[in-house]
Specification:
By secondary structure, the protein is an alpha+beta fold. Helices cover 49% and strands 8% of the residues. The protein is built from 10 helices and 6 strands; from the N terminus they run H-H-H-H-H-H-E-E-H-H-E-E-E-H-H-E. The strands form 2 sheets. A 4-stranded mixed sheet has the order 4-3-5-6. A two-stranded antiparallel ribbon has the order 1-2. Strand 3 and strand 4 form a beta hairpin. The longest helix has 23 residues.
Length: 262
Amino acid sequence: MPPAKKRPRRYDSAKIRPAVLAQFGHVREAVAALTPEQLAGPTRLGEWTVRDLVGHFSMVLGSVVRYLEAPEPAARELVLLDWPLATVTAAARIDEDTRAVDTGDPVGLLAATAARYEELVAAASDERLVPARFGAMTLGDFLVTRTVELVVHTDDLNAATGADVPYDRQALAACTRLLADALAQKAPGGAVEVRIPPYAVVQCVEGPRHTRGTPPNVVETDPLTWLRLATGRTEWAVELDAARVSASGERADLKDLLPLMG
């Protein structure tokens, strides 16, 4: 008999909504302190400058605004767990949209985005459908995806500027859990246990299922290393060599499953 299908993880809106604003607030404070030279500097995201990255931050929250201002879709088309794997199809469009953002006043841009976001989201139900890029989904689910975008790009901003922007704990937790669950979705099974303390543990990869005692195949890493692996910011072999990933067991090799997001 095949194992029972696990229920999708549930996220507490009372934690996700403040987490999105908190992480965006950390970014706003950091951007306000950047010099023109830092804004013009490179990032690890291809040809994007830090100024382009700031424009993308405005898109992350601004997309919620645009979707809430649009007519509500008739039916749900996308569940939360399908979102990470769907992103690989949109890199070119996202790049084009980001470059079109007017970042002449980056501080003002982020302030205006935050104000309009707070105005619209406060009155919107989590069950309200929004016409997201990859298909209509609930606002509650879409806000969870914003934690991924904000945390991952905060890491990009830190790497580019050395700003040491903090990570909201709830935003980092949601980001870690969604990307861990996406791995289990991509490679279902119970042969490997992936541990990302203190936020997530998932089982994945086909093969003999572990039932008791110490699992024979275990991968463990920290949340930031995990999100970098899951989004292609770093490579499996690099993190393994640096001892930021530990992997034990003949099946505990995830390099062919990563990255998860584009």
